[in-house]
Every structure is written in C-alpha cells, then in structure tokens.
Design goal:
The complex is a heterodimer of chains A (406) and B (489).
Chain A: H1 6-9, E1 13-14, H2 19-31, E2 36-39, E3 55-58, E4 65-69, E5 74-78, H3 83-92, E6 95-96, H4 105-108, H5 116-122, H6 129-132, H7 135-138, E7 139-145, E8 151-155, H8 167-171, E9 180-187, E10 189-190, E11 194-201, H9 205-216, E12 222-228, E13 238-245, H10 247-260, E14 267-269, H11 273-285, E15 296-302, H12 307-313, E16 321-325, E17 330-335, H13 343-350, E18 355-361, H14 364-369, H15 378-391
Helix pairs in contact in A: 12-13
Chain B: H1 22-26, H2 28-38, E1 44-45, H3 48-52, E2 68-70, H4 75-88, E3 91-95, E4 111-115, E5 122-126, E6 131-135, H5 140-147, E7 152-153, H6 166-172, H7 179-182, E8 189-195, E9 201-205, H8 216-220, E10 229-236, E11 238-239, E12 244-251, H9 254-266, E13 273-278, H10 279-289, E14 299-306, H11 309-324, E15 330-333, H12 337-348, H13 350-357, E16 359-362, E17 365-366, H14 372-385, E18 389-395, E19 400-407, H15 414-431, H16 450-453, H17 456-469
Parallel strand pairs in B: 2-4, 3-4
Antiparallel strand pairs in B: 1-2, 5-6, 6-10, 7-11, 8-9, 8-10, 12-14, 12-15, 13-14, 13-18, 16-19, 17-19, 18-19
Helix pairs in contact in B: 2-4, 10-12, 10-13, 14-15
The chains are: A alpha+beta (406), B alpha+beta (489).
Chain lengths: 406, 489
C-alpha cells in the first residue's frame, strides 16, 4: 500500500494489510494532523461524542488468532478478528472469555461483526464481571500503533506480569483515542460444567437488591446477580442469581442459597437451561431496553445498594425504564430522548453515591451537546489530557470521542 | 532478590545509582528546615542512626542513606511535602513497609524518603457492598483482619503480607499464592487517592466497579511510586470460602508434573493454589518443616481447592483421578486441618528454610507454563555454569517462577556470580515468551534488563506517560527505567 497523499487521505476508509502499513499510514496522518476514526466491526460506532474524522482506519484486514494455548488459559488475536470466532474457538475447547461480552447490536440497533479490538477498546463486560472481573482484567497483552506511527507492545502472553507501566489497562476502554490496537491477548477461563439460575418473584427494587447482595456476600460464588422490575421481563419483578461450576457443587450451593434467601421468598430454579441462558443473554445485552428505539439509554456503575435510590431520584424524567445487574451496581436506564436525555438529573442523582453514568444510546446531536462519558474532575482531566498527548501528540485518534480535548 | 543469612558490608554489587546532586546535598540543612515547617517534629527524621532504618528494603545488598525521612499522617501533609520537594527540585522516594524484593524502596543520598506507614487506619468498611476504604500505610494482612469477623478477606496475599502495606502492593501490583483464582492487586482495587508531585490530589475510582475515562487505576497499579503517592485506597473484600484443603503429589520428572498441571486446567478445574517445588526445594523444606514431603521425587505439586466439605471432596476426587493418569510416585490428599497446615508449612517456609542453609537471590520471572521443563533444565545449566546451586519454587498455574540462586556471601565474587546467573535466568524467561517480573516489580534489580523485554519504542512510550505525572523525574527516579533512558517531553 502506498502512503496516502493529502488528496487520498480524505478517502473514507483505509484498510491496512498489516501493522507496518498501519504505522506508516498513521505517521502520515500525524504529519498532516489529519484526524482518524478507527473502526472494527462498527457495532459500537454510535457510542460517545461524534468525531469529525477525515479518514477511517479499519482493522478489517488484521484477522486471525495468533496464539491459543488452552492449558495456559491464553488466547491472542489480531484486532480485526471477529469476536464470534474467538468465542467459537474457545467453546470448542470448553473455554470462554471470562467477562461475558455483550452483543452491543441489540441495544444500539447496529449491524456488523464485533471485533476483538473493538471489544478491548470499549472494555465492555457483562454479568459475570462481578465474579470474574472486567474485560480489562482479562486483557494481559496488547500491540498498538501510537500517534507517532510507532508499534508499541505492552504486557504479553503470561498471566502475571508487572514489568513496567501497564499500558494494557490504559488501552482498555480508551475508545480508540490512544491508538490503533493491532493485537490483543486475553486470559480465558474454563466453561462451567453446569449453570443454575434461581429466581425470586415479586420483590421491590430495594428488597431485590438486598437479596442479591446477601447472596454476593455469601461464600457461594455467584456469577450473575440481576434484578428485573415488574413489567420489564414479565408481569412480576424477577430477582435472578446464577451459580456455575461442577454439578455437585452447583446443587449444593443452590440449596444453601435457597436457605440463605428464605426471608425474601422461595427461590425457584429455572429448569430449562436454554431459557436460563437466554435470560442472562438478555441481561448482558440489555435487551429489555432495546425498545422503544427512540428512547435514550444510560449505563450507570455505582455502589450496589445505591441503585434503587438513584432510580427513584430520576423518576421525574417521565417514562423511565430500568433494570439492575452486578447486584445493583450496574443500572441500565431508558429515558425519553428529550432535552439533555436526562444527563443533568441522572448525574445529580448519582453524585452522592459515587460512580459514573455513560449515555450509551442517544441521537448524535445530543451526544455532541451533552457529555456522554462521565465528566472528570479537573485534576484527573488534566492528567488524562497529558496521557493523550504522550501517546498521540498530534491528537489524531478519534479526537473528542470520549471528552473534548482528548 | 533476597539476601539472607550474613550481611556483607563491603559487598560490591553490580547495579549502579546515579551520582547524587551536589547542590541538593549542599542545601541539606535548608531542605530539612523546610520540611520541619510542614510537619510535626516527630515526623521528620534526620539523625544518621534513625535514617539508617530506611537505607535499604528487602534487597539488602544495596544501601543508600537518604537525605531525610518524612512520615506524614495525612493526605494534606503528603501534598505539602511533595509540593515543597517539587519546588526545591528534591527527589522523593515513596516507601510503604520497605519489603520490596526488587529494591523499589531503596533511597538515594539526595532524596527524601516519604514513608506512609503512619497512615494505617481503616476508614470505612461496607460489608453489604463488599468494599473497604483504608489509608495506604495499612498492612495487607490488617485489611483481612479488619473484615475477618464477618467472614471476609482481602484476596491478594503476598508472602510478606504481615508487614507489607497496601501502598506498596499498589505500587508493585503485588500477587500472592492465591491469585490464580482471585487475581492480583489490580484486579481487586477500586479506587485511590493519589498525590502528584506538584501537590495536586487526585481521586481515581471509588466504591464501584470500573472507573470513568482512561483506566488510570490500572496505570497507577504497578507504577512503582513514579506517578504519585497513594494515600488512601478502596479495595474489594470477598467472603471467605467455607473451607480449603490441599493435595500433595510427587512425580519422577518435571515434564510429568507439568503435564499433570496442564491436564487439570484442561479439565476445567482452577484450583485456588497450584504450587510446584523441585527436588532441591523439596529437600530443604522437608528438613525444616517435616511436612511429610516425598524425598525421592523430582517435582512436587501442592494443589489446593476451596468450598464446602462435599465440594472439596468432589474437586479433589477429580484432581486425583487426573493425577493418577501420570503415575505419581506419591499422592496424598490432606485429611485433617493439621495435615493441611503441615503441607503448607513446608511451602510457606521455603524461603526461610533455604536461608538457613545458604545465601540466595530470589528471582521472579514468569514463563508460559508449557515451557517449564525446558526452563528448569536451562536454569540448572546456567547456575551450574557459574558454579552455583539453585532451587525452584513455582506458581504452576500462572507461570510465575521463583528460582532461588544459592551462593555463599563469604566467598568473594559469589554474590556477583549469583547476580549474573539471576540476570541470565530472567533473560531466559523473556526469551521463552515470559517476562522479567511476575509480582515483585522491577525496582533497581531488573532496571538494567528492561531492554531485554521491551524495545526502545516500548520503553520510550512508557517513559513519556511517566513524564506526564512527573515531568521533573523526581519521584523514585533511579528505578524501573534504564538510567540513560530518561525522556523529556
């Protein structure tokens, strides 16, 4: 591939064939101060502030699993590798990504195939995050092209590594603003032999969250803890818990949990495994809030017991729909897409408890006008700007996607 | 590296320190007077006798007398000290309990040591939301003790946990024997209060999962005190398992033990601990702890599982069934608390037991676990080549290897040979796809080996980011990055 000249650089999409080409392309864009959008499968392209890019850098040609050692619980793949391919490959050996990545298309109504790079860059984790850690916790190595057009590696293929600054974590959830990821290495986990889901019916939000946290504070290793209010996934509220492991252990823990949670009502086990799997997929993908399409959707992370109080405090926004994951600590909110889509109200409600609110789905003009990512305090913002400059001095990668100025 | 037994005052070791800044040394009295204006009298340590307690850490071959030592009690005092040192151009070496095996807390003659040990309170415990807010000078074990009455614990458990502080754990991203299941510090940390060199106080994260914006928490974890001084932390606390029990198995070759570990993990079993010892380590540990270790084997595995009695029985039955396919020469499942304690006593006393028979350097590389037989063979050849013995302790589940390079400090030149052997071993770890340090950190010990793991581009990128937090390069400056590598933005 030849180096683009200024006339061709504004072409919509570049698809470098390898790291070297990508690096040369980035160096040329940096020299010309041409802002770049980075695109994997494009499934989460509508999250964050709209970016005025003059070209798009696609990872579509960086594909393939570069390393998979099941006995070492490690897999590495080029950034454009479809997530589905990773999941299939792992499943063939009875393994999985620990953090249960969501299918963002459900909520965002997007098309395309999610990629490894997009997953890493958005640090997207599902229900199992409470037990197994986030996407960033499973990431143990990255290669990326920085804003100088240099190929940088950090971390590696081993699970324990404290050699130098951990740029792997910095890359996780940076939404493309710190560089073009070219390869990501993940720690993986065995798939559990069995999974059981317990449901307690009819609890209000506070009682439901209390029940979840009683379970999470037990020794019985909960891998999913969600509360679905009445009217969302059935007429009655459902408080759901997932227990995974070897069969005798699952049976034992189910028994103990029923006993522990007796005060909250009978905990019924979902008998149909496929039904239970679909339910957790819906929680993972926030399918309950996919409709109405015209609503804005927020994703809040806070301390678990604060969830119901925050929801109560934003009731004034009108037709508010919501549910809780992570024992109440992850609140998904759907609100009418009017004005600031509830930004001020939601962040005010969140403030006393700590945490962050991300506007996950909204019209582009709203995402341009309000801060879709939680605003940072001035000193933290200043340091973030410094980090951006240290990695991308010309500010060419997804400028403003997360915050104005980075 | 651990240096044990004797202390040799005249040790000539190979890791260099930069020459102290004469101008700063010349202003010592004025600098001390300035610090005395910011802190109570007892928090500023200046006498030679008292400073001597801070001249090294657990890498005791290296000693540097600091200019002064300050022991602030609040975030505000830390900020005042840093602001002052920044303005005066004085280097600062942050210190927790001084248990770094990599020399991460070793001072410099022209530096002020900033110890956080006085800030050791638990600020808040929230059992329902499963978090604890602590001051950064609290010891690792004290956090677990503070939550134990409700059956909770703080998961990362470095072997120095009785003494080491959470500040130091964050600086080094410390691990422990149980991190195969529970992760290391970075996986259990939710928030910090950190003071930058210019005195700015920043709050990162909090009592919730994931932090907004860039993952600064991830960046700070393992940054070895070069980005700022941590004064408070919010950590996850977990409910303890109902019980835990180990099994012990011996094999007649390293390869077979390694294959057995791979088969266990391949069967979907993640034990809470999976420890490996080679023949020299077994012999010394058994002589010390009388744990009932088999002495006629080349490799010993200690595999521990957690849960209720029934769950433990089931998991151990699965593990034993797998192990039997590899014809173990010894196989024993612990049947009592006393037996479990004895099995662990041998492993946990390994470093101490080894220290009774020889001086040693404790290395800390990580390797892809499949490389174990090759790596152990090469380690043996490397050490033999230097005329030294070696014993290996290995966290077999995650590939973190601790070769103990044995030498005699009273034989001139042996320490230097041991250092050279250690360096060769770490280069080998990198060569097979691993890294220089799995849980101890770079400090000064591995600083000059960094170019073996990272390209110049990789290192410069790291240094540019470090420079955002500390442009004047005053925070723990002689550590982690090669001395000739400093990058100015």
């Amino acid at each position: 591939m030849t180096l683009p000249r200024s006339a061709t650089i504004s072409e919509p999409v570049f698809t470098p064939e390898n790291e070297e080409e990508a690096a040369a392309l980035v160096a040329a864009c940096a020299a010309a101060s041409r802002p770049l959008a980075i695109r994997g499968g494009g499934t989460k392209a509508a999250v964050g502030r709209p970016v005025n890019a003059e070209a798009t850098l696609s990872t579509q040609a960086f594909t393939g699993i570069t390393l998979y050692e099941p006995a070492e619980l490690v897999i590495a793949a080029r950034a454009g590798t479809p997530l589905a391919e990773i999941e299939r490959t792992l499943a063939d050996r009875g393994q999985m990504l620990p953090f249960e990545p969501a299918d963002a298309r459900v909520l965002l109504g997007s098309q395309g195939e999610a990629t490894v790079g997009g997953l890493a860059a958005t640090n997207l984790s599902g229900p199992r995050r409470i037990m197994a850690g986030a996407c960033r916790d499973a990431m143990i190595g990255v290669r990326f092209v920085n804003g100088r057009g240099e190929v940088v590696k950090s971390g590696g293929r081993v699970m324990k590594n404290v050699t130098g600054l951990d740029l792997v974590k910095l890359a996780a959830g940076s939404w493309g603003t710190l560089g073009l990821l070219t390869e990501v290495t993940f720690k993986v986990q065995p798939k559990a032999e069995r999974s059981a889901t317990l449901v307690i019916d009819g609890l209000d939000d506070t009682r439901g969250i209390d029940a979840l946290n009683a379970a999470l504070g037990s020794p019985f290793e909960i891998t999913g803890a969600a509360h679905l209010p009445a009217g969302l996934a059935g007429e009655r509220a459902r408080t759901i818990l997932r227990i995974e492991g070897f069969s005798p252990s699952v049976d034992y823990r189910v028994g103990e949990l029923r006993h522990l949670l007796a005060a909250y009502g009978p905990a019924e086990r979902i008998v149909d495994a496929a039904e239970a799997r679909r339910l957790w997929q819906d929680v993972r993908d926030a399918r309950f809030l996919a409709e109405p399409r015209e609503h804005a959707v927020w994703r809040l992370s806070t301390m678990p017991t604060a969830g119901p109080r925050i929801v109560a405090a934003v009731a004034g926004l009108g037709d508010v729909r919501f549910f809780y994951d992570w024992g109440g600590g992850l609140v998904w909110l759907s609100v009418p897409a009017e004005g600031d889509c509830g930004a001020a109200t939601i962040r005010e409600a969140l403030a006393p408890h700590g945490g962050h609110a991300t506007l996950w789905r909204a019209p582009a003009d709203v995402r341009a006008a309000v801060q879709p990512f939680q605003p940072l305090a001035e000193p933290l913002m200043r340091v973030s700007e410094g980090v951006k400059r240290a990695v991308d001095p010309a500010g060419i990668f997804e400028p403003g996607r997360m915050y104005a100025g980075i | 590296m651990v240096l044990s037994r004797a202390r040799r005052e005249d040790a000539v070791t190979t890791i260099a320190f930069p020459a102290p800044d004469a101008a700063v040394l010349g202003r010592r009295e004025a600098i001390i007077a300035g610090l005395a204006r910011l802190l109570p009298a007892e928090a500023v340590i200046t006498s030679e006798d008292e400073r001597r307690a801070f001249e090294t850490d657990a890498l005791t071959a290296y000693r540097q007398m600091p200019l002064a030592v300050v022991l602030p009690s609040t975030t505000e005092e830390v900020a005042a000290v840093l602001r002052f040192c920044h303005a005066e151009g004085v280097k600062v070496v942050p210190r927790g309990a001084g248990t770094s095996l990599a020399g991460g807390a070793i001072p410099q003659e022209d530096a002020v040591v900033l110890g956080v040990a006085k800030m050791n309170r638990v600020i808040d415990i929230d059992f329902v939301n499963r978090t604890a807010r602590v001051q950064a000078g609290i010891t690792n074990l004290a956090i677990s003790q503070a939550v134990a009455h409700e059956g909770f614990f703080y998961a990362p458990d470095p072997s120095s946990q009785l003494a080491c502080t959470i500040a130091g754990n964050i600086a080094m991203n410390s691990g422990g024997a149980h991190c195969l299941k529970y992760g290391v510090t970075t996986n259990n940390l939710l928030g910090v209060t950190m003071v930058l060199l210019d005195g700015t106080v920043i709050e990162i994260g909090g009592a919730h999962l994931d932090a907004p914006g860039y993952d600064m928490l991830g960046l700070v974890c393992g940054s070895e005190g070069q980005l700022g001084v941590i004064t408070e932390a919010t950590v996850r606390i977990l409910r303890q398992a109902e019980g835990a029990r180990p099994a012990l198995m011996g094999f007649d070759s390293v390869e077979t033990a390694g294959a057995c570990v791979a088969a266990i993990i391949g069967a979907g079993i993640i034990p809470v601990a999976l420890e490996f010892m080679d023949r020299p380590a077994i012999k010394v540990c058994e002589a010390f702890a009388h744990a009932g270790y088999p002495l006629d084997v080349e490799a010993l595995l200690i595999i521990e599982v957690e849960g209720s009695e029934a769950e433990i029985e089931d998991a151990l039955r699965r593990i034993v069934a797998i192990a039997e396919r590899f014809s173990p020469k010894a196989l024993r499942v612990s049947r009592s608390e006393a037996e479990s304690a004895a099995i662990w006593k041998g492993r946990k006393s390994a470093f101490g037991a080894m220290g009774r028979i020889a001086d040693y350097l404790c290395m800390d590389g990580t390797i892809p676990t499949g490389q174990l037989p090759h790596v152990l063979k090469r380690i043996s050849e490397i050490c033999t080549g230097y005329g030294l013995g070696v014993a290996n302790i290995f966290h077999a589940g995650d590939g973190n290897l601790h070769p103990l390079v044995l030498y005699d400090i009273n034989k001139p030149g042996e320490l230097e040979k041991a250092e050279a052997a250690g360096a060769d071993i770490l280069k080998l770890c990198v060569e097979v796809g691993g890294c220089l340090t799995g849980e101890h950190g770079v400090g000064i010990e591995k600083r000059d080996l960094m170019r073996h793991q990272y390209s110049e581009v990789d290192l410069v990128q790291q240094m540019r980011i470090r420079g955002v937090f500390d442009p004047a390069w005053l925070l723990n400056p002689a550590k982690v990055f090669p001395l000739d590598g400093r990058v100015v933005q």
